[in-house]
Amino acid sequence: CFAAVYNVKLKGENKMSLFGFGKKKEQTEKIQKPELLEKKNIRLDCSPMAKDDVIRAVGQFLCDSGYVDEGYIEAMIKRELSFPTNIGNGIALPHGVEEAKKEIKHSGIAVMVFPEGTDWGTEKVNLVIGIAGVGEDHLEILATIAEKMATPEAVEELIKGSADDIYAAFTTKA
Hints:
Radius of gyration: 20 Å
Number of helices: 5
Number of strands: 8
């Protein structure tokens, strides 16, 4: 029996067709995009560490989950050198420089919680959210974070919350 197999990608689907003796059988399977936040990318009760180490750690979560290529991590460090990513309220949002967009495969975030805070240069931060946004997704991600973390009370609630609380905060619509 002779069969040729080929893959064709059409609008987010992987279409695999098998041909044999003039008969055609098609099988379509959906290519899974990772969620914006996966529970495995939420780290609670982190001990204080150097800012660059925090950025590398949160960037590695993004890389290990398939959101970015490894080069994006250094682009996150580069961004921090040119423009600090702490935004007040004890939050830092490390992300890559513009030219690193090519390193992003899928939009995603990773979260690290530092109950005691970790030094971010001009302030201590308790919540570090690494961001990778394809195209203009990063603006929507930033808007969602700003909306959800608008008050010190909202940040405090998240810092004291569980991984499930954090997951729900960033994956459900308000």
